[in-house]
C-alpha cells in the first residue's frame, strides 16, 4: 500500500504511523524523523533545516522534496510505504504528484487524523515528558499549530476535492484510534 498520513501536530501521526507500518510490513517515512536525524548527525541538510525546526516553521519545500524523492527511490519502498508528515502544503502535493507519475505509482489512501485543537495541546504537554522534543515547547507548538492551519489545511481541501481523503477520528485511546485506522484500511485495495 502507498499511504499518506496527515494531521495536526500532536494528533498521534508518529505513534499510529509506526504501528500501521509494523502491521502492514511497509516502511514508515516520517519527514520529521528524517529531518531530526539529519540535525542530530550534523549533515548539511540538518544544518539548513534546524532553524526552521526550532521555530516550528516548515522547512523549505525544495529540501524536503529532495529528501523524500531520494527516500522513495530506495529498495524498501518499491512495494509500498507510509508517508507521515509529507506532503504538508499544496506545493508538496504537486511535488509528490510528479514523483508518483514518474514512477507509475498511485496513492492507495490518504488518511487524515482529526483531533480538536484543545486536545492537541494537552497531548503534547504529556508527550514532552516522554520524548523531550524541543519543538513541543508551548510557544513553538502553538506556532506549529498555526502553520498547520495556514499551510496544511488547504492541502486537505485539495485532497478532499479529489475525493481521495479518508477522515479518521483521532480522539480517544491509542488502541481506539488504531482500530479505526485498521477498519478504514480494510476497505482499501493495495
Ligand atoms: P513532525 O515530526 O512531522 O511534527 O515535524 C517536525 C518539524 O519538521 C516540522 O515542524 C517542520 O519544521 C519539519 N517538517 C516535517 N515535515 C515537513 C514537511 N513535509 N515540509 C516542511 N517541513 C517539515
Bound molecules: adenosine monophosphate
Number of helices: 8
Spatial sequence of strands, sheet with the most strands = 2-3-1-4-5
Fraction of residues in β-strands: 5-15%
SSE topology string: EHEHHHEHEHHEH
How would you classify the quaternary structure?
A: single chain
How does the major sheet shape up?
5 strands, parallel
Weakly predicted, low-confidence segments: none
Q: What's the average pLDDT?
A: 95
Strand segment count: 5
| C-alpha termini separation | 5 Å
**Gross geometry:** globular
Helix/strand/pairing class, anyone?
alpha/beta
Taking all Cα atoms into account, the compactness measure Rg is: 16 Å
Helical residue percent?
55-70%
Tags for this entry?
globular; binds adenosine monophosphate; alpha/beta; 190 residues; 12% strand; 5 strands
Please render the helix and strand layout as text.
Blueprint: E1 2-6, H1 13-24, E2 28-30, H2 31-41, H3 44-55, H4 61-72, E3 81-84, H5 90-103, E4 109-114, H6 117-131, H7 138-162, E5 165-169, H8 174-186
Summarize the structure.
The chain is of the alpha/beta class. 60% of the residues lie in helices and 12% in strands. Adenosine monophosphate is lined by residues 9, 31-32, 35, 52-53, 56-59, 64, 85-86, 88, 92, 135, 144.
What do these coordinates show?
The structure is a single chain. By secondary structure, this protein is of the alpha/beta class. Helices cover 60% and strands 12% of the residues. It is built from 8 helices and 5 strands. It has helices at residues 13-24, 31-41, 44-55, 61-72, 90-103, 117-131, 138-162, 174-186; strands at residues 2-6, 28-30, 81-84, 109-114, 165-169. A 5-stranded parallel beta sheet has the order 2-3-1-4-5, with helices on both faces. Helix 2 packs across helix 3 (44-55) and helix 6 packs across helix 7. The N and C termini lie close together (5 Å). The mean pLDDT is 95.
Amino acid at each position: 500500500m502507498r499511504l499518506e498520513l496527515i494531521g495536526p501536530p500532536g494528533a498521534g501521526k508518529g505513534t499510529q504511523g509506526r504501528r500501521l507500518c509494523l502491521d502492514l510490513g511497509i516502511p514508515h517515512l516520517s519527514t520529521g524523523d528524517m529531518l531530526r536525524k539529519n540535525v542530530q548527525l550534523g549533515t548539511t541538510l540538518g544544518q539548513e533545516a534546524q532553524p526552521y525546526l526550532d521555530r516550528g516553521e516548515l522547512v523549505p519545500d525544495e529540501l524536503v522534496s529532495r529528501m523524500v524523492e531520494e527516500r522513495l527511490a530506495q529498495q524498501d519502498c518499491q512495494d509500498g510505504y507510509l508517508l507521515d508528515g509529507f506532503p504538508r502544503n499544496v506545493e508538496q502535493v504537486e511535488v509528490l504528484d510528479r514523483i508518483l507519475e514518474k514512477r507509475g505509482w498511485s496513492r492507495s489512501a490518504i488518511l487524515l487524523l482529526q483531533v480538536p485543537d484543545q486536545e492537541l495541546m494537552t497531548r503534547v504537554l504529556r508527550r514532552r515528558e516522554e520524548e523531550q522534543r524541543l519543538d513541543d515547547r508551548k510557544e513553538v507548538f502553538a506556532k506549529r499549530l498555526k502553520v498547520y492551519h495556514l499551510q496544511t489545511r488547504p492541502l486537505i481541501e485539495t485532497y478532499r476535492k479529489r475525493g481521495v481523503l479518508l477522515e479518521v477520528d483521532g480522539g480517544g485511546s491509542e488502541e481506539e484510534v488504531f482500530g479505526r485506522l485498521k477498519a478504514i484500511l480494510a476497505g482499501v485495495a493495495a
